[in-house]
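Risk register update: the risk of archive-format incompatibility is retired. Evidence:
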Amino acid sequence: MARFRTWAGIALAGALCVSLSACSSTGGKRAEDARKAAAAQGRAAVNTPRWTFAMITHSGDGDTFWDIVQSGAKQAAVKDNINFLYSHDDEAQQQAQLVDAAVDKKVDGIIVTLAKPDALKAAVARAEKAGIPVITVNSGSAESKAFGALTHVGQDETIAGEAVGEELNKRGRKKALCVLHEQGNVGHEQRCDGIGKTFHGTLQRVYVNGTNMPDVQSGIGAKLQADPSIDAVVTLGAPYADTAVKAKADAGSKAEIDTFDLNAKVATELQDGTLGFAVDQQPYLQGYQAVDLLWLYRYNNDVLGGGRPVLTGPQIITKDQAAALQEYAKRGTR
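Archived output:
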């Protein structure tokens, strides 16, 4: 039996009903048809003013995860008649400067990630002082409300880590390696902390330079060679799962490779058994919902979540579900 697990199913279903107005058996098809028509014709589905929203993330160059986030955000922007601006920098101070630049442009709304929240606090405060509504996305759920954001869209990273620890227990794993590819990213630390809370075995950590795949591969490989008893490797992003597979082969290890996040390659490797499982936080939905919620606030002063994060995950994906999701992964929406 196909097995999907999520801590946020009921809340997320309600959120989707609000933002898409399509919760009947036919409503989903109509919404999809409308989405395709709007994208093909480049026309908005509303006649509200053409507001400008800026999304500023901590993404490095070439991170395919953020391509999926952007895909969702751009689709919502077409529907909502939004001029969508995207910028990114994996250096926190530079990311803060990009937020400042968006404030100087007097945009109508800002979507920002808080991977390194301390560095972004002043910039977010400046946006709010200028009367620009802010929504945080993906990382920073713990700081979002304190920083004055309307809401946060993403998964709770600690809960996601706890889900991984429980899945590792079910699989009988005894010693796991958590691979952190961006030092200082609080969300990554929370994921590994969450694994440690529920995992009954021993958890080790290894820090690698996520912008340098040879460094990632050698770092994981060195750990596997030094400790052959490691029977599970958990990467914190889809692009690093395949690199972990290569490191495993180089080290002659029998460890299972598992990962956070989903892309077309991960879906294929889940299906053929190369990977054990993946944790999907639905990045397309993060981008789509963030833009849609800003539009709802500008249009109707609506705020979703009641002060709590709007959760998009976690969802444990195994071989059983990989085939069904592969189509969506290939088109860049999962």
